[in-house]
């Protein structure tokens, strides 16, 4: 299936009919009792929302969707973006509309959520070994339109799947990719020989079908030093070697995947896969990058090959560059000593696992013109406070600060609704993104 193949529309109608209340962090009081659709029809402004807040930028999201779709297609790669980044069905739909083959998820609980919205093309970047999950999966596979593939990194995984799937009476075999790992990495068979054993076991099963090779290179490196890139390349070459060694085990009847690619090294995936892709056009060579949809101002800005700063190489850039599509907004609530201000947002509101937020701008009030905030930094964070270290500039009590954020995956999970503004310079709220963590 090609990048442009239709994947169907998710059932999103109910999201617009949900009623807003004081239980929804940051939502303005006048929205209480209104449905999401009614509130959006009233043309709200970001200045109405309470701080702390995380706002998304629709213009940047549209740019990032286009850039990733065009870049992937130009390199002959399919895209099944990791939906656990946002757990937002409305954003998944936008990724599908941009040409993605499906959505990747991380747990069977996430799969269950996705299925309630009608998502019919899912890769589970994990193993399924629990009876309850496998019974649920067997029931879902009665839907002939449901494409599902999971991973396995041991013979024991296949044994567990077989036992539960036979007991459940699965209507068709479950597609499984053999996960290849690496020493010091995350999950995955540690050697090609071990991975081949898993593949042989899957190929011999009547309720599991061998469907390719999978893995995650992102756990092997966290920067773009030559040593890190060499480690990623070496791992990806082993993936290709494993796939080529499994040719006789594939049944020739269903889809075969080779998949890697977080949001940091997808250019290296394209580089290493290129020759094998040219010789094997029948395989779905698939990226799972997910964080690109909003990008960020921290970790991915430093490592992404398509960051708007242009510091990383990514081959042809006719598709453009990613822009940060999320920002935190917090209010100055204390000025206890010279050079220090305390903000009303902390770890419960903003990500901190891949770097602290970066102060970018300040304004007297939300809705006022922003001014650059030079020389400031976030020194530390508590649950509900961030310590803003000030340079030569000062910020008044009650003023607001815009924060660049690092790591979308631990931004979205802190918010039930995230307002989407038209653009960085236009604070009209054009959508409320609902998450399901």
TrEMBL record:
Annotated D-serine dehydratase-like domain residues: 325-422
SUPFAM superfamilies, A to Z: PLP-binding barrel
InterPro entries: D-amino_acid_metab_enzyme, D-ser_dehydrat-like_dom, D-ser_dehydrat-like_sf, PLP-binding_barrel
Pfam families membership: D-ser_dehydrat
Signal peptide limits: none
Record's protein name: D-serine dehydratase-like domain-containing protein
Organism this protein belongs to: Sinomonas humi
């Amino acid at each position: 299936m090609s990048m442009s193949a239709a994947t169907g529309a998710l059932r999103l109608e109910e999201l617009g009919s949900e009623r807003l209340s004081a239980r929804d962090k940051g939502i303005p009081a006048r929205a209480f009792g209104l449905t999401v659709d009614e509130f959006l029809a009233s043309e709200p402004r970001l200045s109405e929302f309470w701080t702390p807040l995380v706002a998304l930028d629709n213009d940047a999201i549209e740019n990032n969707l286009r850039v990733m779709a065009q870049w992937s297609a130009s390199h002959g790669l399919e895209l099944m973006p990791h939906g656990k980044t946002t757990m937002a069905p409305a954003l998944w739909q936008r990724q599908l509309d941009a040409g993605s083959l499906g959505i990747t998820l991380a747990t069977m609980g996430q799969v269950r959520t996705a299925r309630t919205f009608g998502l019919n093309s899912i890769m589970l970047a994990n193993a399924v070994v629990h009876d309850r999950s496998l019974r649920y999966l067997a029931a879902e596979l009665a839907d002939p339109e449901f494409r599902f593939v999971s991973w396995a990194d041991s013979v024991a995984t296949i044994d567990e799947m077989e036992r539960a799937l036979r007991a459940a009476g699965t209507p068709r075999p479950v597609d499984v990719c053999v996960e290849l790992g690496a020493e010091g990495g995350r999950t995955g068979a540690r050697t090609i020989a071990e991975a081949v054993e898993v593949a042989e076991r899957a190929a011999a099963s009547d309720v599991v079908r061998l469907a390719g090779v999978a893995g995650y290179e992102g756990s092997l490196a966290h920067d773009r030093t030559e040593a890190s890139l060499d480690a990623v390349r070496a791992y990806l070459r082993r993936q290709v070697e494993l796939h080529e060694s499994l040719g006789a085990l594939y049944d020739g009847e269903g889809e075969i995947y080779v998949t890697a690619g977080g949001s940091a090294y997808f250019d290296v995936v394209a580089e290493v896969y290129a020759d094998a892709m040219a010789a094997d056009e029948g395989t779905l060579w698939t990226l799972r990058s997910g964080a690109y949809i909003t990008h960020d101002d921290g970790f991915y800005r430093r490592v992404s090959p398509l960051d708007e700063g242009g510091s990383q190489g990514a081959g042809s850039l006719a598709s453009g560059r990613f822009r940060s599509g999320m920002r935190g907004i917090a209010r100055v609530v204390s000025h206890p000593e010279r050079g220090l201000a305390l903000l009303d947002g902390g770890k419960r509101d903003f990500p901190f696992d891949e770097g602290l937020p970066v102060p970018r701008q300040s304004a007297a009030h939300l809705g006022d013109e922003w001014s650059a905030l030079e020389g400031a930094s976030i020194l530390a964070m508590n649950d509900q406070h961030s310590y803003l270290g000030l340079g030569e500039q000062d910020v008044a009590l009650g003023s607001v600060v815009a924060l660049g954020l690092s790591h979308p995956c631990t931004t979205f999970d802190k918010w039930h609704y995230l307002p989407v503004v038209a653009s960085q310079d236009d604070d009209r709220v054009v959508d409320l993104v609902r998450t399901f963590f």
